[in-house]
Structures are given as C-alpha cells and as structure tokens.
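Z., the sequence and structure:
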Amino acid sequence: MAMTQVIPPRNTSIVVVVLESNEVYIIVSLSMRKDTQVISIDPTMGSLRYRGKLGHECFISEEEALRHVTDGSRIKCRSVIYGCAVLGYAALGSLGLLLVAKKLEATIPSLPGGGCVYTVAQSEWIKVPLQYAQPQGKGELKNILELTDVDIDGKHYFSETRDITRPFPSKEHVDNPDREFVWNEFLSQPFKDIGLPGICVILLQGFAECRSLGLGGSLEQMVALTARRSRLHPGTRYLARGLNACFSTGNEVECEQLVWTLSRGSQITPFCSYIWRRGTIPIWWGAELKLTAAEAELYVSSHDPYGGSAKYYQRLSKRYAKQESDSVEVNNRKETRVPIVCVNLLRNEEGKSETLLVEHFSESLNYINSSVQLSDAQLRLINFDWHANVRLNGEQQTIGTFWKLLKSPTMAIGFCEGTYYKSLQDLGTISGSVLLNKDIEGGFRLRSFQKGIIRFNCADSLDRTNAASYFGCLQVFAEQCKRLGISLDKNVNFDFSMSRQKQLSNAQFIGYLPPGWEERSDAVTGKIFYIDHNTRTTTWEHPCPDRPWKRFDMSFEQFKNSTNLYPITQLAELFQLSGDIHATLYTGSKATHSQILNIFNDESGKFKQFAAAQHVKITLQRRYKNVIVDSYRQKQWEMFLGIRMARHLPSVYIHSLEVLSRPPAFFLKPLDRIFPRLMGHEDLLNYKRKNMTWGACLPRCSNGTNIILPLTGPMNPGDLAVMGGSTHLDPQGNEYLPFLYNFEESEGDLNFHTRIVSVTFYPASIEKFPITLGQIEVLGVPLPWREIFHREGMRWLFIERSDMEDSKSRDEEIRGFKVEDYLSSGEIFPVRKTGQLVKSSFPRNSLPEILLPKIEIGIQHYLDCVRRISDKGHDLNFIEAMTLEIERLQVNLSAAERDRALLSVGIIPSTVDPNRSIDMSYLIKLSKLADTLAFVGHTFFEDHIIGATGLEAVETCLDFWNLHEVGSMCMGKHCEVKVFSTSATSSESQATFFSCTACGKKACKVCCAGKGAILLSRFSSKDAKNFSGKQTQFSFTGSDGAAICRLCCPEEVYHSLYVDYVRVLASLRRQSRACKAASKALTLVVGSKTEKRQRESEKAETWLRKLLNGEESLAEFPYAGLLHLIQTAKGSESALSLLLPIGYGEWSSYWRAEPSCQTVDFPIALGSLSDVSGVILLVSSHGYSSADCPHVTIWASNNINREDRSCMGQWDVQTSVATPDIYGPETEATSIPRHVKFHFQNPVRCRIVWIQLSLPRSGFLSLDKACIHAKRIIVFGSMAVPAPLTDSLSDNSNSNTHPPAKLWRFRVPVEGERLSANDLVLEQHLPIGSPPLAGFRFDYFSAIKPRVTHSPAFKDLGMWSSSPVLLEDRFINPPILYIRVSVVQDYSPNWVVVKEYRLPEARAGTIMYFDFPAAIHAKAVAFRLAGDVAAFCDDPAEEGPNFRHVASGLSLVNRVKLFYYPDPNEVGRLASFSAV
C-alpha cells in the first residue's frame, strides 16, 4: 500500500517584480494559504489592484505567478526583490512606498500551543515612482524620503498565526489585534481595502526573544521576554514625555515574562505568564532641553496637570480586569477593584529637580483615589529613590530593600498559570477555566490569573526602570519556575519527567522530595501519596513542602548562594537586550547603568569599570541626538503611524482617485493614425506603453509631462452663482478673493454611473500638423460594488440607509441637516425651539443623513431669516452674514438658489457675502486663524479617536463650535458671565456650567465659546512653529473639562469658529451630493428594493457552475455594462439588473420592457477582450408564453460601429430552442434556473456583444399586453490572454517613423515688468519692433492644495476616511485656476482681452506652452491669475504656518515667457540661447 506523502507547510514568500515598463507587482505566497496572489501597484495613483481572478491575480504557485507577470521572460525585469513578509504600503503623492522584510529571525520559535514570533532582522523600503501630476512641495518630498529612514530592523516583531498584542494566552484571532500595539495599522490599510488583510502582518514595536534555562532533564525549559511598546504616545525622549491627549504616556511599554516547559511529541505544555508595565509619569509634564551640558529643566503644566490621568488608569484597569473574563469558565465571585501599583524610582532628595514630579505624582494619585473618576481600580504608590539607595547602601542592599517593598503587592497580584492541551478531550477532565482560540489546535486550562498590574517608572522609563523591573521580575521568575517544577536551588538533582509534567498540569507544585522518597498516585481516587523507602512508610503529606515566594525573604547573598545562577544570567541578558532596544527607540542610544543586571556574575566588577566610561559616551550621544535628531525622528514615527499628516504631508490624499480607463477599458471607435501597423489606438490606455508617442509629429511637452484636467461635472446655467467672482475676474478687474470660503461655489452634476467618456483634441495651430498624444487616463471614484454585493462595510450601510431614507422622506416637510459634532459628540448647532424647521432625526453617533428638502420651503425660510436680520436698519455685520450662510446651508440651498432668492426680493447677493463684510487685513488674519483651527481640529480629532483605544467612547460636555443663533438666551441666574439676557423659561437644574480658564467665572453653555476656541487659544507661537515641522510636540493639555467664556474669548477666535463651521457645512453638502449620486446609481442598478437580496449565495454559485459548464462568465456588472440606457417598464427592475451576479437581488423580480416596445437592443461591453462561446438567457419567474417568447439575434464586435459587427446567429426561442419548462410562472425550486442557451458555431474574440430581443409577430390582436422580459443575461466563454509586448515594437516605432518636425519657439525680449495684486498680475512691456507674439511658456506653480481646510465632520468612518464613497471634497468641487491674457496694441491705449486659459494640474516647474489664437502685435502684455486662488497654499514644511494668504508659490515672478515662431529661413541665424 502506497504511503501518502505529507507536504510540510511552506514559509511565507514575497517577490516584488519591477518590469522595464515601470510596472510593479507584489507576488505573495502566505504560509497559511495554498495559493499565490499577485497584487499590482497602479503606476499613476499608486493604489493596489487585485480582483482575485484565477489565472490573472490568483495562481497555484509562485513560479506560475512569476511566469505570468514576466511573460515567461526574466529579461523584462528591471529588478526582482525577495522578501519574507509585507510590513506595509502607502501611496504618498508622487511616490509609493512598499515596506518588506527581507530577513527574519525566529526569536521565539515555538509558543505553547504553537506559533512563532519573528523579529525583523533586515527590511527594505521599495520606492515606486508614481506618474500622478499632483503638485507637492519640496518639504513634502523631503518628508516622504525621510520616512524611509525610520529604524525598523531588530526593533519590530510579529507572529503570523497568533495574537501577541494581548497577554498570553489570548483568545482573539490573529486578525483582531489590540490596536494600541499595532504600529503598521496605517500602512496595512491599503491591503484591507482590496480585501486581503492577511497579506500585511501585524507589526509590533519592541522586543521579543527567548532563552533556554539549560537545566537539563528530559524536558527543555524556556523563558521568553516580550515587550510591546504602545503607539498611543509615540516619539522621542524630550518630545513624548508624560501624558498626552490620548491618555497615554511617553515610552509606555507592556512587558510579559513567559516560562514554559517544552517536549517534542508532548500533548501538554505547562506555562506561567507575568505582565507588568513601564512608562513615564502619567501627568502633564515635560522638560526644557538646554544647549549646555546642564540637566534639562523639568516643569509640570500649570493648567489641569492631572487631566486625563484617570483615563490612563481606567485603560489599564479594563485591560487587566479582562484576563479572567476571557476564559470560557469563570468561578462566580464578587468583583473587586483592579489593583494598580505604581513603583516610582525618581530622586526624592531635597534640591533634586525630580522632586517636583514626585510631589505631583503623589498628589495626582491622591486626587484620583479621593474622587469618583476611577471606581474600578485601586491605585497604590511606592516611592523608592533608586539612585539615593544605591549611593548610600550599595547595590546589594538596595536590591534586598527593594524586594521587601515589592513582596506584598507582587504576591497579591500573582501571575497567570495554566497548561496547554493539544486534545480538547483532556480539557474536560481537569479543573480550571478553559480558554479556546480558533488559531490553534486544542485549548488552555488556566488554574490562576494575574489580578492587577505593577507599573515601574523613572523620569524617562529607561535605565532605572529597566534595572528595577528586572529585580522585581526576578522573584516572579523564581516562583514561576517553582510552580512548573523547575528547581533553581543549587545541589538539587533535577529530572523532570513526562509523568511529573502531567501531574503538574492539574495541581500546583509543592516541593522537591528528599533522597529515598517517591511520589505515586492512588489507582482509585487519583490522589497523590508519598513513599519513604528509607523507613518503608507512606504518607499523604509532602515531607518537605516548599514555602511559596520564599526568595522574597532572602537577602541578596542568600539568594545568590542558594540559586542556580545560569537561568538568572539568561534572564538578565534578555532584560539587557530589551533595555537597549527601548533606550535606542526613545533616545537614539543604548541603555546606561546596565552593569547592575550582571551583579550575579562573578566578574561584575569588570562590568562596573567598563560601564563608567560607557556611561559618559552614551550621555554625550543622547544629548546630541536629543538636540539635533529628535524632531527628525519624531516626524518619522508620526508619518509611519499615519498621524499628523496634515502637518507633514498636507497635500497628500487619504483616498486617491482611481484610473478608470485602465484595461480592460477600451476605445469604442477606432482612431486614425499615421502609422497603423506600428501601434494600435488601444495603446493610449495601456501604461505598458507609457513612454511611447502615438501619432508622432509634434514634440511632446518636456520629458513627457503628465498633466491633469480636473472636471466639475456637467453644469447648467442654473447651477452657477450669479456673481461668479470666485471663479473668474469680472471685466472691471475685481480683485475679490474669498479667503474665508467659496461664497459662490458652483455645483456640477455627480454621476457614479458614467460608462463612456468622450475626449476631443484640437490642434493648437491651424496649420495641418498631426496631433501627438501620450497615454490617456480617466480618473475617478467608483462605487464599492464588492461591498455592496456582499453587504459588507460601513460604506454599504451608509448607501443602503441613505437610499431607504431618501425614498421615504422626499415628500415630507422640509428637513435640513443637523450635523453631529463628532469632535465633542454633541450637536453643532442648537435645534430651534420656536418656528422650528430643522428637525432632529438622527441618533447620536450615527452617520449624518442629509435629506433633500422642498426647495420652495427652504427658500422661504431663508428669506424670512434675511428679513429678520436686515430689519435692524444697518448693514449686515460679520456674525449676521455668517448666520445667514448657516441658515442657508441648514436648509440645503445651493449658492445659485440663494442668489436667485435674494435677487427676487431686490437684494444684491454680494451684500451678504461674509468675505466682503470685513476689511482685507482682518480677512487675511481671520483666514489664517480658521486654517489653524482646522489643523487644531484634526489634531484633536486624531487624539480623540486614538484616545478611545482600550476605552469606551470618550465624551466631552462642550461642543467644538458651540455657536448659538441670534436671540439665544442665557441658561440661568447662576451664570456669572451673562453675555445674553436670561431666559425666563430656562431650567437651571438641567443647565451645565463651566469654569472659565481665563477669568474663573462660572458660565453656562450658551455663554461659553466652543471647545475649538480654547484649543486655538492654546495654540501658542511655539506650537505654531511646531506646525511647520521644526518641532512636533503639540498636544492639548487637559482639554476635556476646559472652557473659555465669551467675554474672555478674543473676537477673532470666536469669528474663526463661524468660518470653520460654515466650511464644515459646505463640505457636508458636497458629501451629501456624493451620497445622493451614489444612492441614485445604486437604484439604477438594483432598483429601489435594495434590502431584498438572495441569501443563498452558495446555491447561486452552484447554479452558475452548472450553467457555465467549466467556462467563464464574461459580462457581470460592474466589470461589464450596457453602452446605452434601455427602455424599462414602470415598476420593473433596471436593465442593468440583467448583468448582476446571479446571487444578488430578489429572485422573483426581473426586468421587463415597456409594452409598446417590440424590439430591444442590448449592447454589452464585456469585462475584457474575450473569446465568447455563447449567451445564456435566464427566464424570469413569470415565464414565457406564445405572445412574448422572443426572437433572439446576437452580433459580436470590437467597436461601436454597427456596420463592423458580425452576426453570430438568429434564434426563434419558441420554435427552435425552447423547452416546455420555460413556459408559465415558476412553481417550485429546481436544481438549476430556467434558461435558454445560445451556442455560437465557433468562439469569437470580441469586446462588445449585441443582443436583440424582439416579440413574435402575431397575425391577430392579442388581448394580453405582451412585453419583452428576462431575469439575467450571461455571456460565457473565456478571457483572451493578452499578447506579450515585444521589444521590437518599440524599436520599430522609433526607426520607421520620420523624426518629429520641431516648432522652433524663440523668446521675445521684454523691456520691463511690473507685478501687482499680490503678484497675481504681471505686466510685460515690449520694446519697439518686437516680433508678433505667438504664445507664452508657463512654468507651473509650486503651491499646493491642502487636504485639510476645515475641522473634521465624520467620526464613525474612522480615522483615515473622508466620506462614505471615498470621494474627497477637492474631487467633488476641484479648485481651478485661469490665466487671463490682455494686450495693449499700437493702435489702442486700452487693454484688450486675448483669451482666458484654463491651467491644468501639474507638478511644480512643469513647462507648458500656450498658443494665442493668432499672431499679435503688442506694446504690452498682462497676465492675470484668476480662479480659486484662495484654495492654494505654500508647503507648511517649507514656509511655516503662514499658509492660505495668496500663496507665494502662485506668484507669477519668473513663470511667464513670451515666444514667437520665426521664419524657417531665419532659424539658423538666431542664437540658440534665445529658444524657449
């Protein structure tokens, strides 16, 4: 009988292939899977592309995938990089960064229950240049490159199969880690977005390593030390100290000491696990670093230094109170408070700077214990001046004294003790709590749990902390070994057998037997008894019971003399390595004072001599790095974590556009070309031919420049605001710039169902020169169809809810949108009490739903507000103008609707524009404040989201904006501020009062400014400098309960709240339009009943396999689609439902045409070039009859021209194809749906299939209203394998074409220049006799478009989401710039407009050429930059915080050069230096 070969599990393999065509592929073969995935990186946008189609992105082996990528030829590979794991990926504007581990070290080869922990030994950042022409500043590009210098190797680890982010053993799946310790969450998000979360490992920062205790015996004894660094307060020594707004401390580390016995083939593994923490003091404090050698000056925040400390301890109590609840069986007992013991090692002598911290630390714990802020934890502080004790008493006595202090809390807290069983059957026979994990075979039986946590700290949680935690854990280690039957006593004959291991798995170890004694168990009861062979007697009692925790009572010498020191030195080595890792990450240098860890070594004196010199060296090294390098390293870690991106990479998209025209997209019509044999028009869409020139005659832009033309969508005249000043300059030269916000925002149509894009190119010259084109790409955002069809994810829930609510409430009374304040979990704007129009219909913490009101009622309400405010007899002030805008946005009116409403009552719209209600200097100042508030809001929002990690939702009492409408009333007589008059009906019992941080007066909510005001007021000049990237320590001290009253709030700060709020409302209106368009597109595909969906997905897959019989479905939506709309009967499913996956939708529903239609054509564009074998028509649940059984005609084609299509056949379903079961309604479920199959005589390769259904011609008048109907159309066959590109094609295209004819452009000399209007207007005066002007060269700007323009509006979508449909504001309404050219000619002194040119987007310095309509003779030329100038800013990393004030990068200085075309006969006589 042949033996079955067992295939061992493979190791994870990563292959990154870079082809000569600049394509980048990631080939991933995971150890947990049997297949191989191929992920491509889009060369334009940098997004990851993966559809999971077998034979295209999914293969059975790595070799097959590599052959597919390289077309079987390794010559096409520019580079091949091999790795062991994917650590992350990010597309950052012009560069994609892929982080892979090239070498791994199995530092913990086998955990109890299985699983390996790998430490990254060598990593590499693979830089992928991207072609997207997004303007980026030099500072951004520098920051992106600096990210690749982040220190990864040797300091990060992961496990592919076990959750190691929680204390051992964890019941959670490896894909559900604790986010506090996941350092690559930001970098792993792109893989989650494509449905492959397991590709990127869960990366932890810190230390993980194990050692063998080397005690001999039949079993191996292991100890592992794991240290997980928290990511909630990342950073370097002087920039991440104390508490932050995320309620975490700097250099916070959770450490775990795991001891277990290991035996090959054993079914059980006893283990003991102990957890402790280390970190800086959890209060608000810091240090001012001096350039001299003097110590840094410590300080404690003067305002609420203990704000958030209770939240920190609450997070600890929740984490360490869960250990017992994680098990399946828990003994019933009364819950107790979680003990948290803080061991403070700071200097506490008079005159020492650390004494200040000791006093505040004690006071903070007393404050928390005495208050009701922390009811589930019991805090205790142990002060132990480590340095003073060592200096006065010596190291040995210090250690002994330290043990006495730790004895009581350590014994009370204990540690986790249990056994792993490979067989689940053994778990039921043993007492204890059971913990199961689906990642492993078997389970854990836990006999005891750790009941609390000990936390060690010094000033920086470095050297003293590492030493003290070692000696504290040393006692635990000795007790762990004793519980496992591992003797650390000297002169003990150790022989740990398998039988003894089984006994220990069910009982606690008592002690070792003297010589001549034997342990046995009773055969009936199983109870253990002891035999003394010396006296031939038996006893139930152990002759020498070992006292628990006995080494706590030993002096240092007693401990040393009675203990086997080899395991102790192994543990000391682990602590020394761990201390060096944490010190390097925090300070840039290794740990000092580590010689004390070798105190048990006989040569410890040599270590002291060496350590003294080493200490001086490390101290100098730390000081240098703290002063010079810390801010650089801080910035690296923030970008690595994806936080503070608005500061470091202000223009980088969170969700970029996608290239929608990437193959399988294709041209519907053939294009004429000069050399048809060399290249096809389809190459214009193929990035493999990006460097080729199609057409070949006119020169390209410099170096094949990429430019972008942003589109706003189709606009009707009614969509445009009346004034239009923010888009074009008026003829009078109006210099109006809407710095606050776009008062006249135009709104184009949004359509998520665009299938065809038509692009027309016109030659720049009237001469007959052929047009040269490079690659054409259409960018956009598709709907998440995969999530929709599988009903997964937050975006699907939002679209489904919006669709249901929209259909329910279109005819209800006007309801504007009330936005939740997600920065403070409160309402942004109060709900009116009288004459209420805006009704609150959204639950707290729900996604905002913006409902379309009746326009007429909204206009009437807006005009009522205008009359109420304008009746005061004076011009509108700033607050009144902003209030009107708030009212307008709340009733969901566009700017165009507002303007028409105002004009109908005789009001000029510009008179209510807040941008015009204040002078220019104050406008610029207010704009800067609002921009700063936007950054502050996003920073606070990030901290708000991150701070909720490990906690319940973090709530605050005061709204971020806290704006109140005119006429609001004070909440009661106890308010000492009384900005408004007191309301007679207000109830003080329900009012909330705050203490002003400036004046100390008690103020009600109405009389307080929003939380944004106090955050902005604390954004000091030093913090403003930090925003520029010079330093990055920025946080909001005690911001939870802080407030500032209206009297103390500066006017410009209060006004900036209005500006930011209006920007948020305008952004929400844009997002509402996007969601409405998404809902409309969804309805067009699946109809209005989106909640009815076939649940039997497995059954549907079985149906499809039977129908296809081994072939592929080629026309499934969204990869395939209809080329034009199909006439559909009322109440029918949409025509696109014919192409939906077979398992989606209500099975009884179907599509039907209008009764008047006798013939319906379905032009179906396939998902890719395919070899089509035939078509399947699924019969509807209604079934056919003689009156509606259709005639079917099918054509195939590669373009849309009807004359080019080929007829594949005609079928009369009733006479030639039909079977009896297709007639009549569907009565019972069958093994396969009713269908009609049309086979082609031979497969045909095509892109478009035309299907025509027509009703049979009847000779008499039918009483039934017959109509064409069907359930699904399935096109089957196989996808065509694309022909490999050959190098000869590129060579031929260059050798056989004529060299391009150059158009010589020569510079026109300029006599003088004059700049005006903030450098946005450039006048060039020409000398007499200048040649006729042909055009101008323009060098593109260096300004950027910042992503953050207002405070965040959404919370539920997560930290890196911007909208449910992933369509950012600047894509919905992209800012557009224009260049208006005017000239003064010889015969007229007046300026004459020549033309207005729209500027595309491009990278800084991109050269563009613009031709005039005709040659112009002129004395002077003026260039004026117009459009959305206020939407651009300078790179903050370069220019500091002075952004959004007519960005200097938009200056026309040295950007415009006039040129002319000389006579060909004169070209040779012109100097070459005059060419443009």
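The mean pLDDT is 80. The chain is about 25% helix and 20% strand.

Let me know what you think.
H.
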